[in-house]
Amino acid sequence: MPVTDTIDVLDDDLEVIDEHDEAEADAAAEVDVDDEAEEWGPIEGPALRVDQSEIHGTGVFAGRRFEAEALMERCPVLVVPPSQAKRVVGTMLGDYVYEWEGGSVVALGFGSLYNHSRSPNARYEMDYDLEEIHVVALRVIEEGEEILVNYNGDPTDTSPVWFEVDEDGNELDPA
Predict the structure, then answer these.
(1) Which of 154, 135, 150, 115 is nearest to 70 (CA)?
(2) Given this model, what pLDDT does residue 89 score?
(3) pLDDT tens across 37-53, in order?
(4) Which tens digits make up the pLDDT trace of 142-171?
(5) Neighbours of 26 (CB within 10 A)
(6) Using CA atoms, how far apart are residues 94 and 144, in angstroms rounded to an integer?
(7) Taking Cα atoms as reference points, which of 144, 125, 120 lies closest to residue 66?
């Protein structure tokens, strides 16, 4: 095939690509984006979902039944060095970090979205070698049930946390 034929074939391919991009752009332009935020829906995965919580703001819910001692989530973490930890704690991220070997971490996945309870149905475990936080069921957790952890680390620790809790030990929504 002569070089000019090859260029013509490439030009035809590019036109097809351009037409495809234009069609995608037209479809995207048809999406009606309202400036007023609508009620958001849950973020769902096969086993867990994030949705609005009756306890506090958002929470993590079981997308299926979990047996006692089931590993529900492995959360990779972003390690905040001890020299920077105090600066993070003083920000809005301070409510979402875990203590970690003298510093702190931000848990990825759903790890920083679990709500607190003094009667938790799950616990978290630190894996310092893998730099992960594991969320494990303490008892059977049914599909649709909110997954709650004790922010003190030990599920039986009833000592105060940095925010107010109700008589059941669940965090109060400040709103």
Answers:
(1) 135
(2) 72
(3) 445 555 455 789 999 98
(4) 999 999 998 777 676 666 665 555 556 555
(5) 9
(6) 28
(7) 144
Q: Is 149 exposed, middle or buried (0-12, 13-18, 19+ CB in 10 A)?
A: buried
Strand order in the sheet with 48-52: 43-44, 48-52, 58-62, 146-149, 115-116
Does position 101 have pLDDT exceeding 50, yes or no? yes
Structure letter (DSSP) for residue 131: T
Distance CA 122, CA 148 (A): 6
User: Which DSSP string corresponds to 70-82?
Assistant: -EEEEEEEEEE-H
Q: Which residues pair with 44 in a beta bridge?
A: 49
At 7, is the pLDDT very low, low, confident or very high (cuts 50, 70, 90)?
Answer: very low
**Which residue's structure tokens are 């909110």?**
146
Q: Would you tell me how many other CB atoms lie within 10 Å of the CB of residue 11?
A: 10
Q: Which two tokens stand for residue 111?
A: 């790890």
Amino acid at 36: E
